[in-house]
Amino acid sequence: MTEPKKALITGITGQDGSYLAELLLEKGYEVHGIVRRSSSFNTGRIDHIYKDRHETGVKLYLHYGDLCDPTNLIQIISTVRPCEIYNLGAMSHVKVSFDMPEYTADCDGVGVLRMLDAIRSAGLEDSVKFYQASTSELYGKVREVPQSETTPFYPRSPYAVAKQYAYWMLVNYREAYGMHLTNGILFNHESPRRGRTFVTRKVTACVARIQKGLETCLYLGNIDSKRDWGHAKDYVEGMWRMLQQEKPDDYVLATGETHTVREFVEKAFKYIGVVIKWVGETGSVEEVGVDASDESRILVRIDAKYFRPTEVELLLGDATKAKNVLGWEATTKFEALVADMMEADIKKVEVGDLTS
Ligand code: NDP
Ligand code: GDR
Fold first, then answer.
1. Is residue 79 among the annotated active site residues?
2. Spatial CB neighbours of 130, under 8 Å, sequence gap ≥ 6
3. Distance 93 CA to ligand 1 centre (A)
4. Distance (Å, whole) CA 298 – CA 278
5. Ligand 1: lining residues by beta carbon, under 6 Å
6. In Gene Ontology terms, what is a biological process of this protein (predicted)?
7. What are the tens digits of pLDDT across the range 323-348?
8. Best substitution site from 92, 188, 196, 228 to test ligand 1's pocket, by max atoms within 8 Å of Cβ?
9. CB neighbours (10 Å) of residue 40?
10. Are 158 and 105 in contact (CB under 8 A)?
11. Burial level of 71, CB count in 10 A (0-12/13-18/19+)?
């Protein structure tokens, strides 16, 4: 009997890590994940597969570690000796990166260099295939639409600058040492497992709670920015396909559609039968409902706290290369994505899982 392929995932407890772990287990991989030590449980997104491991022999193993701890990374990679590594771990919140720029640089930038050097220290540079979670945030200030692998970068946040360092580290090590290193330049992708501080999930969770009378108003920042939103399940399939290629390369994954945050909010309310009527200038109080003077009908308000010092106004991806080379296409588009997230959050509210 042949040994199963071994994959190592950093960020396995996050949105993408959890879907990717499921996908690789389905494909018969032995999956190893790096988990940060936390004073409270942080494995909620993978508990279902970890429990299965005890009951049905699913091959999932977790290791404590951190991208800021090089000795620990060398130890894990040398011991596990994976053939594929998916580096999804990151301080992934763009707004928070303005509050924690140095930590973000350490984790999202230098952390990637630590992973690459840990592979070399373990003597695996000729055998490992490495996926780096690069991002459409690299494009930042609009210079070309749609954005593809050849669009120049102009990062607009400490997060994006750190990710740009990582991107170029991969390119450099690929050219310098011939390693199989691939950047997946992924546009926004969401799901019912999306963290609740990202705008899509913040909206769907809040709208579901408003429907049940648990909340009265949704507070948002810039509702005019545009994003190319896909479904995380589609995107982890794309990550895997990238590492099945004989040669490493960089690929954009995107839906090819762009929508404003405003449209996302409208669709989410429409899902619960509320038609939004926006009033006021952008950036002022927004109002919904029939009677504009009725305070209780104001379901969305703008709060300056959620604006970023520099914003990425427009993201729209061109995933033609991924389609041609990987045979990958986004299967879930905007309307279906909102519906999937709304359906899940309404269910969560019903069973008491979204109490705050
Ligand atoms: P999440 O924020 O849901 O998950 C991030 C993961 O990284 C979590 O498992 C988190 O652990 C872990 N992590 C955070 N800091 C460290 C650290 N210092 N050491 C080790 N692990 C750490 O992000 P997503 O799943 O949405 O995204 C996955 C990756 O893809 C990220 O790198 C993100 O920047 C990138 N990306 C995401 C896109 C998206 O739209 N989702 C688009 C493009 C790129 P814990 O659970 O303990 O917090
Ligand atoms: P983004 O996602 O910054 O694109 O990064 P996020 O959902 O945080 O913001 C999207 C847009 O919505 C606007 N916005 C708000 N955002 C948040 N979080 N909260 C609000 O209240 C709010 N109101 C308006 C933002 O200004 C922005 O324009 C995500 C992350 O997953 C990154 O890790 C990843 O690299 C990129 O997507 C691609």
1. no
2. 84, 85, 87, 115, 116, 119, 170, 179, 180, 181, 182, 248
3. 8
4. 10
5. 10-11, 13-17, 34, 36, 38, 42, 66-68, 88-92, 107, 133, 135, 186, 188-189, 195
6. 'de novo' GDP-L-fucose biosynthetic process
7. 999 999 999 999 999 999 999 999 99
8. 92
9. 5
10. yes
11. exposed
The sign of the dihedral angle between the CA atoms of 111, 117, 118, 119 is positive
Residue 151 token pair: 């669009």
Which tokens go with 140? 């930042």
pTM > 0.90: yes
pLDDT digits 0-9 by tens, 13-53: 999 999 999 999 999 999 999 999 999 999 999 999 997 77
The CA 2 to ligand 1 mean position distance, Å, reads 32
Positive/negative CA dihedral, 287, 289, 295, 299: negative
Question: Which structural domains are found in the chain, ordered by start?
Answer: 6-192+232-257+313-332 (3.40.50.720), 199-223+261-311+342-350 (3.90.25.10)
